[in-house]
Design brief:
FrsA_esterase; alpha/beta; Rossmann fold; hydrolase; Dienelactn_hydro; 289 residues; 9 helices; 9 strands; globular; nine-stranded mixed beta sheet; hydrolase activity
């Protein structure tokens, strides 16, 4: 089984045409705001954090922001410019020697086109694709791969050492992205591992981005993870009191040494201890910074 069979037609690839919009010295790293094309007449802005003093190309980590129904926030939260300080993992990883890239997902921050800039446009983005035989997940995964195209084109990045980290919505994407893009050789999913079979309840439901027609009739997240490249390592970080972490132990039992599981007596959070475990996992799998 490959997820491509369910994603529908992929979005068109275009020339990146990348450009740097601003560059800010943040002490131990420089934060760049960059822009690149993800489709015809469609550009995305992202933050790229580059550690100071690199003497060779460094590993890079895609840092996917959370959901939290905060459609006015995206890339700014993971670099520490707004929102919850516990979500500033792109900045913390840059402090530790990793190059990080953090774009806005579709419908968030600069990609939220609602009149107030903060309303939910995800179901519009989903439905207008579904009626044309496409899926929102295909677009989200395309955007991630395009961000990796951009970051691996930079001379300060080692393209053979690419990781992924996300919490909540980002934690869900941390499970799907390596199945779509084998360049990701280490991925950390925090509080976002709930399988489809545990999502058919009013307190969770299925997020718009993961509506994949027909997929859950015979498949679930185990099948997604089983499709990873053999060299790809996955850490599932989960809270025992977190509804979005339901099924974490089931995934680990089904996949064995394919998955490393870190369980915490916690809710839907990304505490300092959880983040440090994630950073150590990425350092061990991606090599020295």
């Amino acid at each position: 089984m490959t997820i491509e069979a369910f994603l529908g037609p992929p979005p068109a690839k275009v020339d990146l045409d990348g450009t740097c919009l601003e560059r800010i010295d943040c002490g131990r790293y420089t934060r760049e705001k960059v822009s690149y094309a993800v489709g015809p007449q469609e550009r995305v802005s992202a933050y790229v954090c580059v550690p100071h003093g690199l003497d060779r190309p460094a590993p890079a980590v895609f840092c996917h922001h959370q959901h939290a129904s905060r459609f006015d926030l995206g890339k700014s939260e993971v670099v520490g410019l707004a929102g919850d300080p516990d979500q500033a993992y792109a900045a913390e990883l840059a402090d530790r020697g990793f190059v990080t890239i953090a774009p806005d997902a579709i419908g968030f921050e600069e990609r939220n086109w609602s009149p107030d800039g903060a309303s939910n446009v995800s179901w519009f983005e989903l439905s207008t694709r579904l009626v044309r035989g496409r899926t929102l997940l295909a677009s989200c995964l395309h955007d991630i791969s395009t961000a990796l195209d951009y970051v691996t084109s930079r001379p300060d990045v080692d393209p053979s050492r690419i990781g992924f980290l996300g919490h909540s919505y980002g934690g869900r994407m941390a499970l799907w992205a390596p199945a779509h893009d084998p360049r990701i050789i280490a991925s950390v999913s925090n509080c976002g591992c709930i399988p489809f079979r545990h999502s058919y309840s009013h307190d969770t439901g299925v997020q718009a981005e993961f509506v994949l027609p027909g997929f859950a009739a015979e498949h679930d997240l185990e099948d997604v993870i089983a499709g990873y490249d053999d060299r790809t390592a996955l850490l599932i970080s989960a809270g025992t009191e977190d509804k979005w972490s339901r099924g974490a132990e089931e995934l680990q039992r089904a996949l064995g040494n394919r998955v490393e599981l870190a369980l915490y007596e916690a809710g839907h959070v990304f505490t300092a201890a959880m983040r440090e475990r994630a950073y150590e996992f990425l350092r061990a799998r991606l090599g020295p910074t």
